[in-house]
Amino acid sequence: MSNVKLTTESKNWEVSAVRIYNTNSNLTLDVSGNNNLIVTTDSSNVAVFGSNIIDGTTYNKSLNVNGPYFSNNVSAFLLPADTSNNRPTGQIGYIRYNTNTNFMEYWRGSVSTWIPISEGPPTLSSISPSYIAQDVSSTLYTIIGENFNSSTNVSFIGNNNPSVELPVAAVTYNTATNLSVYISDAIADASNNSFYAVKVINSDTGLFTTSGYIVSYNEAPYWNTPDPTSLGTGTGNETYTYSTTPFSDLSASDPPPAHLPITYFATTNPPSSAAPLVTLDPSGRLIGTMPLSGSLTTYNFQAYAQDASGSRSPIYTFNFSVTPPLLTLTYSSGASLPTPIYVNSSNTIVGGPVAGGFTIYSFVVSTNQYTSTTFAFQINAPASTHFLCVGGGGGAAGYNSCGGGGAGGFRTSYTTTQGTSGGGGAYESTLTLTSSNTYTVVVGGGSRGVPGDGGTYSGSPASVAQGWASSISENGVTTIISYGGSPGACGQAGATKPQDYVNQVATGSQPSAGSGGGSRNASPDNVGGTGTAGQGYNGGSNASYTGNYPGGGGGGAGSVGQTAATSQAGGNGGSGLQSAITGTLQYYAGGGGGSTQASGASDPGGGGSAPAGSGGSGVGGNGRGANGTALNGFDGASNTGSGGGAGCNCGTPSVGKGGDGSAGIVVIRLPSYYV
Description:
Layout: E1 4-8, E2 11-15, E3 19-22, E4 28-30, E5 39-41, E6 47-49, H1 51-54, H2 56-59, E7 70-71, E8 76-77, E9 81-82, E10 95-98, E11 103-108, E12 113-117, E13 123-128, E14 131-133, E15 140-146, E16 153-158, E17 165-167, E18 170-175, E19 178-182, H3 185-188, E20 195-202, E21 206-209, E22 215-218, E23 222-223, E24 229-235, E25 239-240, E26 252-253, E27 263-266, E28 278-280, E29 286-289, E30 297-306, E31 316-323, E32 329-334, E33 341-343, E34 349-350, E35 358-363, E36 373-379, E37 383-390, E38 397-398, E39 410-412, E40 431-433, E41 439-443, E42 450-451, E43 470-474, E44 477-482, E45 577-579, E46 586-588, E47 596-597, E48 601-602, E49 610-611, E50 625-626, E51 665-671
Parallel strand pairs: 9-10, 14-22, 24-31, 38-42, 47-50, 48-49
Antiparallel strand pairs: 1-2, 2-3, 3-4, 5-6, 7-8, 10-11, 11-12, 13-15, 15-19, 16-17, 16-20, 18-19, 20-21, 20-22, 23-26, 25-29, 27-30, 28-29, 30-31, 32-36, 33-34, 33-35, 35-51, 36-41, 37-39, 37-40, 37-51, 41-43, 43-44, 45-46
């Protein structure tokens, strides 16, 4: 091999077959030893570095050529790099890095241009999910393929208008094989397309469009429940579960091919901010705890139905209403509580509780109208309530001159006819019931009529007794009391007269009578009994002793008993008072009529010259007019606290019984709903 002369930095180097040496400085690179560079040629006359230098196993060394373009520290070598404007004149085999395009490029002699060396165009192998849910752009789509980069974009092409590309809303580059995509509202709303092709585009390497429509359009559910619809009415403070809710379900259907199940969503949670504990169950039922308000309140909300593929129906508006909670009385002790009745705001009886209406409990004696019945209860929420409290009516006797029984005391906060001063029916304040207290209602029985000669009748006392008092108590303290009516006077000389019973009842003392009983025709005891101011009136007297033996009428809640007339007629019972507290207008607490006994005597309306007295307002018992025949007086109307009518015995012992006073009544009228 002949020497080759190298010139570097004014220093001359020569290369021989065995060495490289510098002629000026006597520097020599020996290439013959094991530790120096050995260059040989192979069979193709290609230079080969000696194995002693590059054999890392033997010498723990490797080829280390340091310089501006080479470094084994990064296992790479640096290509010449520059801008497009600084490209050299192309030669076959040239390769460089373009700092403008960020691609390697090579000189392609056949076309005399620089060609970039880059990845291929993108491809798409799958998209998931493979459907578009109607009106839903929030579905995340995953696209799998190849050659994706940060510039990759995606669009959808509908089958009905393939010339229009619908861009997606967002593309996230994950890896060269994975993209995340959200579609646009325009794609989700493009219900005129049944299928879509998908196109992926790299701005620098090309594009790819699927050969078929690989994404289907899924039509959304349609509503069966109209917009708007009221789903019903619940009760405030009540908690409803899936099985107890009173509201109607939302309903929608999915067009074929159906993607079931259909799930229902409110657009906000909770559906109404004014009802924070009410939710819409995925099945379309409203559940939860209803809000508490003082009146019927309606709550609006919006919802949509979604099928299993995610397609959503249009948003519809619905509403539900909530009434205040039902006010109810709950049993505490004593007799069973009565079954309530209900009236609406017009005081018309209805089949159940209604908003603005009232619930009415009418307490009456249980089995024996001659004794009292006690009820005890609590209320579930505070309420201002109306009441009616009527004591038991007084009975009457039967002889030849007997007065009618006095009516029980009448007190109320709800009445349609007001009494005059001294009588019953003066409007009183309502009762306020609280949920922490126990209330006791006592309904007074009526007293039983007896024969006027002092005999007995079916075990009743020989003397007529006063009716029982009715009352309302709170925690054992009586707040309302209506006294029983005093009895009508017995016509037999020396027998009972009304005044004897002012302080007597079957079980002890009673300070007053509701209304007084009618007098007998027996001087000097011809004065009617005394009623209690604010509860009832006095009984009728007897104008003078006459041979026809007329008795005075019993006092009523609305007026005094009629005085027995000199015309020998018995006195009419005092009028009762009306109340519509139960939803039905009717009279209570009428006095019993007095009897008469003589030639020409007759029952009321019988046409005789000496008729007996009528019962007050049609609820007091009528007296009897007997002409030689023993006749029983008529009873007061049931559960009105009215007096019994007087009878006649015409001298026959143990017959001619007086009429019974009727048992009283207590009515509690409360709003149906808590307000």
